[in-house]
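hiii, so i know i said id send this last week but things got crazy w the move. better late than never?? heres the sequnce for the chain we talked about at the cafe, plus the structure i predicted for it. fair warning i was half asleep when i ran it
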Amino acid sequence: MLYIKNLDEAIPVFKALGSELRIKVIQLLLEKKEMNMNELASCLGITNGALTSHIKKLEESGIVAILNEHSGHGNQKVCRVNVDKILVDVASETNEDSQDSYSIDIPIGNYSNFSVFPTCGLSTPKRLIGEVDDPRYFAHPSHVDAQILWFGKGYIEYLIPNMLPPGRKIDQITFAFEIGSEAPGVNSDWPSDITFFLNGNKLGTWTSPGDFGDIHGMFTPDWWFPNWNQYGLLKMLVLNRKGTFIDGLKISNVSTKQLFLTSQDSLCFRFQVLEPSKNVGGISLFGKNFGNYNQDIKVRVDYSSIS
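okay and structure toks below
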């Protein structure tokens, strides 16, 4: 997902989408997954030189990514659509009343608690940590170096540093993370009901559509196994004074007004696959050097005076 916080930031996206030819490029890439410049130019009936400026606009807007060449394509660069959704926050809740904010990145392996069941595993960008499908390795000291993890059911928890000054309350917390289901092997049609908690409070549930392995993740290491999870979806979870939202869609009425979090509160965030549930399809979390977005769990906290 491409999250745009205001209309000014959206201008490059609007410009990129303001061309029938560029829309056709996006449609072709969605249909074919990946295409090199020669293939795109041939399908569109234009020269490579004419195509280059259009691809540049799509890349600058974040809609299309240019990948290093895979074998079999010659020296051409390969193009791929880099988003599944575009969200433009016209009237952001990061708002007039909030006076301050802080942001922090939480590495995937820097969890504080877990209870996981196979299929499961975790890995650094260079090697697996221990053996797959053995939950004991989630307690190994090297888990802090993990940049991908997956499990069939259970939960994983992260402590978010509370940096609020005294006398302040949280107005909004935003979490951004790359996530998918966890199937044995991979399966793009493998729904999983993933529930989010903050300090033990159930924020809501989102259903992941699948465990994606149809193409290699953009940042997934070359040595990674081809029949394993390759990438996820970038999701944005927002808890604010109006409720809890995923990609702008409300999933519950739980709000920061209800929780009333101050500098004295811990902030413990949990991903969980609950049982019983309609879709017990596991969780895959992608951090830096894995998946399509090359990021840790990004957290932003907006706060203001209690008075």
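btw Confidence is low (pLDDT under 50) at residues 94-98. thought thatd interest u
miss u guys!!
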